[in-house]
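Deliverable D5.2: sample structural annotation.
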Amino acid sequence: MCKGLAALPQTCLERAKEIKSKLGVLLQKPENAIDLIVPYPEKSEKKPEKLHKPSCEEASQWRESLERVLNNNYGLATFRAFLQSEFSDENIEFWMACEDFKKTKNPEKMAAKAKMIYEDYIQSEGPKEVNIDHFTKDVTLRNLVNLSPETFDLAQKRIYALMEKDSFGRFLRSEQFQELLVN
């Protein structure tokens, strides 16, 4: 006889949430899918830079701060791949979306990006919801009324701090990072 969710041990609920999160990846539109709503894709502003593998010395400097990793294209790609391997890439994806949002000048594009960021990362039960407190969610929601490049700053700072405190240490101990130090 089922006694409802309240009767389930907490670990079962956590496991169910983890499985739901992992399955959500399968429901996302593939990167190469055709978007039927927009008949012509936007032209990219510039070609993506070719990633150059850093020297051992350069990679070892990444230990100094998460900021050094994120400011290096290869470092960002490596950190992102590490987080994807842990099924916890929503934080870096959110951080990158915020960085992109800050560079947006067109008000219509800014509004569309803000909506996407809020729905995907901030809104409760969003497909890539990041772990931020209710106060930060409320501030961010209020900031959406008058959009500016700083709209997501508080939430982005909280997620940066979370990555710095949690994921960054594991990244420095990871095989991906250690391989850069010996080659």
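Annotation notes: The chain has nine helices and no strands. Residues 153-173 form the longest helix (21 residues).
The annotation will be released with the project's public dataset once the embargo ends.
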